[in-house]
């Protein structure tokens, strides 16, 4: 695990990066190849959008107490992604380029690559007010839907 220290004049925090892992669908999926539509296969759409999401641990306090204090948001997200990939199995495949640079999805069921970061010694209220990085953090990122995170991660790594 690497540690990354980010600092600004108002804020200093440490983040521990955990090893990237492959999350496969929870159940077997069909093995097939799907051609992308002409709309989805435009050259101008072949780029990656980096996304970062933050979740407050205290927003899950009911779950935490019902699970005896053993609630781990990362495990819940991983399980949700694995379950979602059963129904959205092309996201667990790999993009391939065919004749004429036509893109297709090879539905292999391999899964998606996810990389997790855990914060150390930082209050999100301070982060929300003082974060000074190269991207903007809106209040809505702190309360986004849990399932959305899975699909954004899938999209980021699918078009990698």
Spell out the blueprint of helices and strands:
Layout: E1 2-7, E2 12-17, E3 21-23, E4 32-35, H1 61-66, H2 73-87, E5 94-97, E6 103-107, E7 112-114, E8 117-120, H3 124-130, H4 146-158
Antiparallel strand pairs: 1-2, 2-8, 3-7, 4-6, 5-6
Short description:
This protein is α+β, with helices and mostly antiparallel strands.
Series of H and E elements? EEEEHHEEEEHH
Assembly state: single chain
What is the average of the pLDDT values?
A: 71
Number of E-type strands:
8
pLDDT < 50 stretches:
1-9, 129-146
CA-based shape = globular
How many discrete structural domains? 1
Binned, the helix content reads 25-40%
What do you see in this structure?
This protein has helices at 61-66, 73-87, 124-130, 146-158; strands at 2-7, 12-17, 21-23, 32-35, 94-97, 103-107, 112-114, 117-120. The chain is globular, with a radius of gyration of 18 Å. It has 160 residues and is α+β, with helices and mostly antiparallel strands. It is built from 4 helices and 8 strands. Residues 1-9 and 129-146 have low confidence and may be disordered. Strands 1-2-8 form a 3-stranded antiparallel β-sheet, with no helix packed on it. Strands 4-6-5 form a 3-stranded antiparallel β-sheet, with no helix packed on it. Strands 3-7 form a two-stranded antiparallel sheet. The chain starts with a strand and ends with a helix. The chain has one domain.
List keywords for this structure.
single chain, 160 residues, 3-stranded antiparallel beta sheet, 8 strands, 26% helix
């Amino acid at each position: 695990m690497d540690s990354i220290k980010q600092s600004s004049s108002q804020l200093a925090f440490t983040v521990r990066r955990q090893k990237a892992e492959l999350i496969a669908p929870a159940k077997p999926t069909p093995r097939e190849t799907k051609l992308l539509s002409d709309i989805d296969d435009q050259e101008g759409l072949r780029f990656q959008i980096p996304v970062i999401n933050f979740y407050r641990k205290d927003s899950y306090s009911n779950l935490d107490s019902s699970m005896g204090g053993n609630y781990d948001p990362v495990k819940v997200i991983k399980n949700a992604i694995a379950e979602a990939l059963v129904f959205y199995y092309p996201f667990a495949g790999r993009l391939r380029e065919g004749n004429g640079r036509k893109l297709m999805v090879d539905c292999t069921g391999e899964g998606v690559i996810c990389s997790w970061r855990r914060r150390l010694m930082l209050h999100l209220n301070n982060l929300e007010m003082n974060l000074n990085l190269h991207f903007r953090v809106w209040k809505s990122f702190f309360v986004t839907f849990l399932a959305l995170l899975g699909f954004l991660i899938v999209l980021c790594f699918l078009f990698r």
